[in-house]
Amino acid sequence: MAAALSTDEIARELAACEVTLPALALEKLSLYLELLLHWNRRINLTGLRDPRVIVRRLFGASLYLARLIELRGWLVDVGSGAGFPGLALKLAAPDLKVTLLEPRTRKAAFLKEVVREVGFTITDVVIDRFEVWAGRIKKGQVTIITTRGVELSAALLSRMAETLSPAGTVAVFTSLKIAQFLLTREEALSWHEPSAIPGQGGSVVLIGSLKN
Q: Which of 21, 60, 77, 78 has the highest local Cβ count within 10 Å?
């Protein structure tokens, strides 16, 4: 499988998002990108087709979270799809424990292949919805919950709060409009001001934590 972009080209695209990665992580990203492009011909993982745009808008945006919070402990990614942001964050934090929740079987199959081929360790792919999965684990254990493109109902946010450890973090990748709406809602989480992702137009990361 020939590389769509060299690691130098990937590094330049990531730089537009103020993201840098070591050489080994760039090689892993390159393989992940090739798998994504290959699978995307068969199933709709992303509407993006240009490898440079994919690196900036999917990998770069996801990895920007590493500039905002410490990536440690156990990360659970809700509605992983093609692995953004949760699996992409393994590139910046290879020792991070990651659980990818994806209810659609074919997308979960893609995630499992990426985990296997790229060599991501301590990473599980679970074919289930977060609300169901969270009911089977002990409360207050998850350090980081991430999500992108998932509708955040009051019930879902409440379940996230129950799952989160006392010093844990929720990171929502969304638009500024949706972030501003979430800031007005009285939920179990306390939100910080959204952080704009460089080079992403109106895309932001909204960080939340448990209310005192």
A: 77
